Amino acid sequence: MFVAVDDTDSMKGNCTTFLATEIIREFMDDLDLIGNPRLVRLNPAVPWKTRGNGSLVMRFGKGTGPKRFIGRIGDRDVFCYDRCTSFEPDPVMMRDRIIPHIEDHHEDDSDPGLLISKEKPSQSFYWKGVRTILSRNDVDPEIERIGGTTFEIGCGRGLIGCTCGMAWRPRDSTFELLTYRPSGRWGTPRIFDPITIRDVEHNYPTTFNSWEDRMEKVAMVPSTPCPVMYGLRGDVESDLIEASSKIATESIERWIVFLTNQGTDDHIIRNTTKLIPNQSYSITGTVISNPRHIEGSHVLIDLSTRHGTVTCAAYEPSKEFRYTLDWLVPGDVVEVLGELRDLPRTLNIEKIHVISTVDEYRKVSNPICPICSRTMKSIGKGEGFKCKKCHTRSSVPVSVKVSRQIVPGWYEPPTAARRHLSKPLKRMGLEQPVEFVNSRTL
Ligand code: ATP
Fold this sequence. Notes:
- By secondary structure, this protein is of the alpha+beta class.
- It folds into four domains: 2-166, Alpha-Beta Plaits, CATH 3.30.70.2200; 174-260, Glycinamide Ribonucleotide Synthetase, Chain A, domain 4, CATH 3.90.600; 268-356 and 410-428, CATH 2.40.50.1010; 360-402.
- Helix content is 17%, strand content 33%.
- It contains eight helices and 27 strands.
- The protein has helices at residues 16-27, 91-104, 124-131, 136-145, 158-166, 194-203, 237-244, 322-326; strands at residues 2-6, 32-34, 38-41, 54-61, 63-73, 76-84, 113-117, 149-152, 174-180, 207-208, 211-212, 217-218, 228-234, 254-260, 268-269, 279-287, 292-294, 298-305, 308-314, 333-340, 347-356, 360-365, 377-380, 384-386, 393-394, 398-402, 409-411.
- Strands 2-4-3-14-5-6 form a six-stranded mixed barrel. The chain has a five-stranded mixed barrel with strand order 16-18-19-21-20. Strands 23-24-25 form a three-stranded antiparallel sheet, with no helix packed on it.
- β5 (63-73) and β6 form a beta hairpin.
- α4 packs across α5.
- The longest helix is centred in the first third of the chain and has 14 residues, at 91-104.
- It is elongated, with a radius of gyration of 27 Å.
- Bound molecules: adenosine-5'-triphosphate.
- The site of adenosine-5'-triphosphate (ATP) has 26 residues, from α5.
């Protein structure tokens, strides 16, 4: 039986992943977890998300075959099975036991949803949920079709995320080991040793997004008042379990390894014929403007693409990444990945692939007259040059080729400015060809 919950937290507190651990604890004595619990990130451009637009999905039943150690809640180990018998628990019994946990762990301004179903929704709901904007009218018939048992509070918008998260059949996936603080410490400053986090990122190549080498900063510890101590992300579950034991923190009350779609680029729409705001795209184009610095220290650049001119933006939080745009010149060809904002209509760059660069020239002087060797004078802006003595004309000044600061390759923002769904270069087996200078004043 699949169980999905979404939309229980707000900026003030709580966390749907913590609620998932409470649900796992509730059924620990009578049901088995089948597969890891899942943290499924949906469209990051959804305007009403709290933070990372995460939906939580678990499967319960009776396990068979080997079981895997995937966490600890209090003093009890958590295991999951990869296979299960045909037994299915009663969905109404499950709903009645989950509701008190939702009531205890939701914020007043959230719109929680709970979906329990033996059958998964059609896979297309995952792709729509991770790439487009849906309404309850889109998902309700599918919930009915699969015979889902539901519970909702407020407008129950969480059922959209429940349906789309439950529909996920991983094409690519990663893991996140989430650790939680004892409730008495929620909202207080987190105590941890950053050097142990740096060492984990360096010593476990299958982990990602834990530490920012450029700024020497921790990226895996949230700053919100939620129950999470840290989230360690990576490709190999056993590496995460081993690596987390090397991270020094205050006491942890529980931890569990989630299967996720984080770091997969699943939200990116490729080869589209139409650009729609609040969706994320990969677009290839030729640079047609110099970079513009706007208020707030954001950097914009225009691309000529098959969709017309697209203005791309690197916003202030992306820090040194903005140099990538600064270094581009008209004629360079790039592929940009990011969310299309409605107002102002910009593509917010999450990652950029510099495909080719043009030669760049800098004017050093007006042209020299080929007859008398004097320097020609400018006739006016855009009008060219003329030798005062011989009246020879030229339109081409004396220029020198300058060495470009940017070379073809992939560039990404610092870890803290990345989207949960963005595939890090580390996962693509790539490194940035040019590193950013660790300072920026503009
Ligand atoms: P956190 O990541 O901190 O747990 P959150 O960012 O997931 O919080 P929610 O409070 O869950 O934020 O709010 C997201 C809301 O958007 C949910 O109600 C979810 O059902 C809904 N939602 C998710 N994906 C879509 C989508 N593609 N279209 C419309 N609504 C969506």
